Amino acid sequence: MRKIQNADLGRKTADEFHASEKRPITVVLDNVRSLNNIGSVFRSADAFLCEKICLCGITATPPHREIHKTALGAEETVIWAHYANTRDAILELKEKGYRIIAVEQADGSLPLHQLKYELSDKIAFVFGHEIDGVSDEVLELLEEALEIPQFGTKHSLNISVCAGIVLWDHFLKISKG
């Protein structure tokens, strides 16, 4: 076995990425405070061809050195917009026909493996603050939540890890049809 070199990976250029058809997935970051988490979410959104990231409330925006450190340039490929509050982003997405799913341990949340998608679904995944989660104000606007089953003592995952798992799960389910 040998490691594949970067030059052999066939990566898209930024222009090719911009021209690529995106999956109808929007990631909403509800008051995420860690610049490293924000950058990592950009990188995952790039990897899975997400169409947009909504950076809401205190969530920092590019350009920023700390975001770039983990995004590795994905903040320049993935389309993003800033909203003063998450409520405005959610209402706009609802108006555009998105199925909006909080990623949160909440009453009625489904375990990730039970969540089903239709190929035609436009999805917005809402990820919350590292300590407080998705805000109550936002949860009141939503009808669906998912959670990743966990079996250790912490019962929480870093938001960037969580986003990667959720986006990969969606990719797998849609790819299988």
- What is the number of independent domains? 1
Summarize the biggest pleated sheet: 7 strands, parallel
CATH names the topology as Alpha/beta knot
Strand order within the widest sheet? 3-2-1-6-4-7-5
Oligomer: single chain
Number of strands: 7
Low-pLDDT regions: none
Helix content: 25-40%
Look at the structure and name the CATH superfamily: SPOUT methyltransferase, trefoil knot domain
Radius of gyration: 16 Å
Class derived from helix and strand content: alpha/beta
Please state the second-level CATH architecture.
3-Layer(aba) Sandwich
Q: What is the terminal separation in angstroms?
A: 32 Å
Mean pLDDT across the residues is 95
**Mind telling me the CATH class?**
Alpha Beta
The dominant shape is globular
Number of helices: 6
- Sheet-strand content, in percent, reads 15-25%
The run of helices and strands is HEHEHEHEEEHEH
Outline the structure in words:
There is one protein chain. The protein is of the alpha/beta class and 177 residues long. It has one domain (21-176): Alpha/beta knot. Helix content is 33%, strand content 20%. The chain has helices at residues 14-19, 35-47, 65-71, 86-95, 136-139, 159-176; strands at residues 23-30, 50-56, 80-83, 99-103, 110-111, 123-128, 144-147. Strands 3-2-1-6-4-7-5 form a seven-stranded parallel beta sheet, sandwiched between helices. Helix 3 (65-71) links the parallel strand 2 (50-56) and strand 3 (80-83). Helix 2 (35-47) packs parallel to helix 3 and helix 2 runs parallel beside helix 6. The relative contact order is 0.19. The model has no long low-confidence stretch (mean pLDDT 95).
